[in-house]
Design a protein that fits this description.
2 copies of one chain form a homodimer.
Chain A (H helix, E strand, L loop, with lengths): L10 H19 L4 E2 L1 H8 L3 H9 L11 E2 H12 L6 E5 L3 H8 L10 E6 L8 E2 L2 E2 L1 E2 L3 H8 L1 E6 L3 H13 L4 E4 L12 E4 L2 H20 L13
Parallel strand pairs in A: 3-4, 3-8, 4-7, 8-9, 9-10
Antiparallel strand pairs in A: 1-2, 5-6
Helix pairs in contact in A: 1-4, 2-3
Chain A binds a DNA duplex (30 and 30 nucleotides) through helix 1 and helix 3.
DNA sequence: CAGACTTTGTGAAATTCTGCACGAAGGCAT
DNA sequence: ATGCCTTCGTGCAGAATTTCACAAAGTCTG
């Protein structure tokens, strides 16, 4: 029972906590003070017991017979996810997507300021996008150190994505958001989250086809699946 | 009892098949004819037994002692995922992201042509983006029927995302790619895939914080578990 | 303050997913 | 053909995740 070390939260629960946080922020914005696991479960589209178990990984912050306090739970989730501080982001690849991310102001207020953008194309280096100037990818190491970067977003072409991630890891960045449609080779100490619309569409295609075939065979069976990233 | 119906593939496997397909397409492009489960496992960053089990859901298409044929497997995965036909996509919300998706030509060649884009803002309706003209969301039903749309991509503001998905479901669309940072309320017969960069960043934040704390404590602790996503 | 009512927190069962281990099935060399 | 080598396909056990079910702990009412 001596649990000085932080409790480890199951991966599956970690992916749901940001969703809960989003919902609680909305509740807070509409002046809701308290919520029950049942209410949150409906809003998040999951089982109520799962909500309670997920929240219990943070500690026992509910009150039996009453529920949870919105603001307090928001704080606890933020604490657990490491959102009480900022994590600086650098974008690699100053193409359409990279520049859009750099210009988009929506990440800084959520704690993920984009503090730099780099490319390997001499024609792009030096151009400005939003409030940032595109740097040379060869100076990535210095940039990471000077600007205290912890997260790298890869928006390069597929062909250069692997060298981009190698450069990031070299520079000491261990959290990567990858937009290139490729599986990156990384040591297991590095976290990678892939965002690939092609993959998402193909997953939808599978379930769509299942439905199509099912309604064509016009019989019993109504099994469906909903998936979230 | 009678198993005329298609084998049901586990959800976890369905999400990996598109990744395998991607890799096999690359192998094909570099004139590789055959591959073993081991080779694909390395490229996909997963266990070889998992690869074999995943592929076995398609049928027994490997040759013992030899491996799998690249082109044949590509075809089988496409068949299973429903990628031998096209699935038409409509974009709801003609903002930055919506227009970018409409203009981006990368989906049509992969079997997901964007055939329409709509908005509810009179100022946007009638404008052209790429080869498409922004339609009125009130005509969504007709558009879905006339253009045989099966997938809807929601790129509206958070505030209008729910009414957008309601309209899609009304129109008979049951596969939804949602970019709005909100959990959509949908019947269980509808498939939803969420793409939310904020959620992804927050997940990365959790594991980054775990690493940070671990390297800071870097003492006395006997139990050290490595976190990898 | 007692009893009815609500909702949490969590063991335990059920389900899903993963990975090992090995028999089966092919190729290849002699 | 025979025997060796490689690699698939899969049964099974263990891990992870989800769900159930209920005691515990609180509120509320009269």
């Amino acid at each position: 029972m001596t649990q000085l070390q932080r409790r480890r939260i199951p991966d599956a629960a970690v992916t749901r906590l940001p969703v809960y946080l989003q919902i609680l922020n909305n509740l807070h914005a509409t002046n809701v003070l308290r919520f029950s696991s049942d209410e949150l479960a409906v809003l998040a589209g999951v089982n109520a017991a799962k909500v309670r178990k997920d929240l219990s990984y943070l500690g026992s912050y509910g009150t039996r017979g009453v529920g949870y306090e919105v603001t307090y739970l928001i704080h606890q989730i933020k604490r657990e996810l490491g959102l009480l501080r900022e994590w600086n982001v650098v974008v690699i690849g100053a193409g359409n997507l990279g520049c859009a991310l750099a210009k988009f102001g929506g990440f800084a207020p959520r704690g993920f300021p984009v503090v730099g953008i780099v490319d390997n194309d001499p024609k792009k280096i030096g151009q400005t996008t939003g409030s940032l100037t595109v740097g040379d990818v060869r100076n990535l190491g210095k940039m990471v150190r000077d600007l205290n970067v912890t997260i790298g977003a890869i928006t390069t072409s597929t062909a250069t994505a692997q060298s981009a991630v190698d450069a990031l890891i070299d520079a000491g960045v261990a959290s990567i958001l990858n937009f290139a449609p490729i599986v990156l080779a990384t040591p297991s100490s590095v976290s990678v989250r892939n965002v690939d619309l092609g993959v998402e569409l193909q997953i939808l295609s599978y379930y769509e086809q299942m439905r199509t075939e099912q309604s064509e065979s016009a019989k019993t069976q109504t099994k469906s699946s909903t998936a979230s990233v």
